[in-house]
Amino acid sequence: MVYNVTLIPGDGTGPEITEATKRVVEATGVKIKWEEVECGEGAMKKHGTPLPPYVLDSIRKNKVALKGPITTPIGTGFRSVNVALRHELDLYACLRPCKSYPGVRSKYKDIDLVVVRENTEDLYLGIEFAPGSEEAKAIRGFSKGKIKESAAISIKPISPEASKKIVKFAFDYAVGHKRKKVTAICKANIMKFTDGLFYDAAREVARQYSGRVEYEERLIDNMCMQLVQKPELYDVLVLPNLYGDILSDLCAGLVGGLGVAPGANFGDNGALFEAVHGSAPKYTGQNKVNPTAVILSAQLMLEHLGETEAAAKLERAVADVIREGKRVTYDLGGTAGTSQMGDAIIEKLAKAKQPVH
Ligand code: NAD
Question: pLDDT tens for residues 8-46?
Fold first, then answer.
């Protein structure tokens, strides 16, 4: 079987990393027909938009995409293409497994956490009003003077539909991957309506899994400390969008940093696989950064395609290369470049294919 997959090389170091990843995936033996499309800075220059419609059409058609990181200029320029892709394709669930691999420098070992982040609402909807705008004035009126006249305002919508959907995703993931516990995390003691609603939705869903998967709740501030002190107590974590974004970076830090943190975004009609890290623009063209996070995202993609054996083989090959530490990138204490680390993983995959005598 040949799978059609949309490939977005991305900006900055993205093209170097996705090139190495493509070769590694091909070395697993899984047949993939890559449909390469451009979005981000390059597309902006060529087409006047960072997200041309053909990119969305390609992903809608193929239903699976692998993406390199895309640069979002701060303050000016276009809004985040990453956020727009998730929104346009209704990729409501963001999955970020954080696992320790021996050989990665970290203060912790044996971490095995999965962060499930809601992707479609919360402060990421981008409903923001500038200071002094008519909307800001109107909202200030409702606040009975609590909001300063000089303040900018962002709106945080949280719906029961999206909250139940993401919590159900987390529980289904837990059941499918033999996980024991789901922890719902927010700040409901302060945001009683929005985050309170998230907890209500989570409790309703949790009841349907009672006896199969344990359920508990934590406040986000406490959770940050708990994860630093006792990460072994946790398993699958489910959060609204903004808290999920922040906590997944914290969890990436527990396992040794962004270079080894993969991710996936799922919707009812498609899935997009990408690393947690950004385009690391200062290293562009230097063949320097770690391809592991995108390669492990591709491993999640193989699992999603039902190629579980190839996915497991790929993870073992990555783990072996990291454990040996001979051909790894600078962030893992080595001197190998992006493509050389890819080559090392390909060699491990080739050896795994040879019969054992
Ligand atoms: P970044 O993740 O690109 O880089 C921060 C630092 O982390 C780098 O300078 C580097 O030291 C290290 N790093 C990141 N990836 C690495 C890798 N693969 N190997 C080794 N070291 C690595 O974060 P940033 O500098 O804040 O963001 C750069 C751009 O990426 C911004 O425009 C941002 O908006 C964008 N971004 C995109 C995505 C995405 O496409 N999903 C995610 C996050 C940030």
Answer: 999 999 999 999 999 999 999 999 999 999 998 888 888
Determine the distance separating the centroid of ligand 1 and the alpha carbon of 204, expressed in angstroms: 37
Domains 1-91+260-357 and 112-121+157-254 share a fold: no
Q: Cα(95) to centroid of ligand 1, in Å?
A: 18
Largest CA distance in the chain: 79
C-alpha dist (Å) from residue 309 to 30, 90, 176, 334, 352: 10, 29, 16, 29, 12
> What is the predicted pLDDT for the residue at 76?
56
Report CA(280)–ligand 1 centroid distance (Å). 4
Q: Where are the domains of the chain?
A: 1-91+260-357, 112-121+157-254, 126-156
For 112-121+157-254, give the CATH class.
Answer: alpha beta
What is 1-91+260-357's CATH superfamily?
A: Isopropylmalate Dehydrogenase (3.40.718.10)
Closest ligand 1 atom to Cα of 290 = 19
Q: Is the pLDDT of residue 237 over 70?
A: yes
What are the φ/ψ torsions at residue 55 (nearest 5 degrees)?
-70, -45
Cβ 72 under 6 angstroms from ligand 1:
yes
SS3 state at 266: strand
Distances (CA, A) of 97 to 29, 106, 177, 261: 24, 16, 12, 7
Q: Is the CB of 253 under 6 A from ligand 1?
A: no
Using alpha carbons, select from 159, 81, 156, 162 the residue that is nearest to residue 119: 162
pLDDT band at residue 79, thresholds of 50, 70 and 90? confident
pLDDT band at 149 (very low <50, low <70, confident <90, very high): very high
CB 310 within 8 A of CB 30: yes
pLDDT tens per residue, range 336-354: 999 999 999 999 999 987 6
